[in-house]
Design goal:
Radius of gyration: 19 Å
Largest sheet: 6 strands, mixed
Low-confidence stretches: 205-210
Structural class: alpha+beta
Strand order of the largest sheet: 2-1-7-8-5-4
Order of helices and strands: EEEEEEHHHHEEEEH
Oligomer: single chain
Mean pLDDT: 88
Helix content: 10-25%
Shape: globular
Number of helices: 5
C-alpha cells in the first residue's frame, strides 16, 4: 500500500506527503536502461535505469497545507518541532522556524503569520507559478521506493531553469493540481481542457484555445 509520496522540484526542494493527502493519475510509465563505456582519458562505465511518466496529474488537498501551516506556527511559538512538519520540511527551503520567528517578532497576528507560512508552503503549486515538479518518489509499505521522472522540456524560456513546457499548475476548489503531458508543449494554454480529460473539476480559467 502506498504510504508516502516524495516530491522533488527543480530548485532541489523536497516535500513529503502522506498518501491520504494526495490524488494522482500517472500514465504511460516507461523505463530507460543505460550502459555507457567511456574511452580514455575518461575511462569507466556508467550503468543505470530510470522511469519516466508520459502523462498525468497529482494534486494535494489545500486543507492539508492549512494544517501543516498551523503546526509550523505552533512549533515556532512554543520553540518545538512538530511531528508532521519536521520530516516534511527537512529538505524544503522556502520556510523554516527562523523565518516564522521573524514574522512573529514583527507583531503580526497569528492569522497573518499562518497565511504567510501557507503561501511559502504552496509556492510550487499555485496557479500562475511555474510547474517545476521534476520527479515523484513513491514509498510503499511492501515494495522498495520507486522514483518516476516527469516529462520536461524548456525550449521557450531557457533562462528560466524552472520552466517546464509540459506541465501546468491549476487550482481546483479544494486542491492544488499539477498536470503534465510529454506530448503537449502547449498544455499551459488549455489547462481546463486537459483537466476535463482527467475528469478533474477546476476553478475558472481563461482559456486560450481557438
Amino acid at each position: 500500500m502506498l504510504k508516502m509520496i516524495e516530491m522533488t522540484f527543480e530548485n532541489t526542494d523536497i516535500m513529503r506527503f502522506p498518501a491520504d493527502s494526495v490524488n494522482m493519475v500517472l500514465k504511460e510509465i516507461s523505463e530507460t536502461i543505460t550502459l555507457v563505456h567511456y574511452q580514455p582519458p575518461f575511462a569507466g562505465t556508467s550503468e543505470g535505469a530510470s522511469q519516466k511518466i508520459g502523462q498525468g496529474y497529482i494534486s494535494v488537498r489545500k486543507d492539508w497545507f492549512q494544517s501543516l501551516a498551523a503546526e509550523i506556527l505552533s512549533a515556532a511559538q512554543h520553540q518545538t518541532a512538530g511531528p508532521l512538519a519536521q520530516p516534511i520540511l527537512a529538505d524544503y527551503h522556502q520556510v523554516d522556524q527562523a523565518m516564522v520567528a521573524k514574522w512573529l517578532a514583527k507583531d503580526l497576528t497569528a492569522e497573518q503569520v499562518q497565511k504567510k507560512i501557507f503561501n511559502q508552503l504552496t509556492l510550487h503549486f499555485v496557479q500562475g507559478m511555474p510547474a517545476d515538479l521534476s520527479s515523484l518518489t513513491l514509498h510503499d509499505t511492501d515494495q522498495p521506493a520507486r522514483t518516476l521522472r516527469l516529462p520536461w522540456r524548456n525550449h521557450v524560456n531557457r533562462e528560466w531553469l524552472d520552466y517546464n513546457e509540459f506541465a501546468v499548475n491549476f487550482d481546483s476548489p479544494d486542491e492544488f493540481v499539477t498536470m503534465f503531458d510529454g506530448r503537449d508543449p502547449h498544455i499551459q494554454k488549455h489547462p481546463q481542457q486537459t483537466a476535463e480529460a482527467f475528469g478533474l473539476v477546476l476553478g475558472e480559467a481563461d482559456e486560450e484555445d481557438e
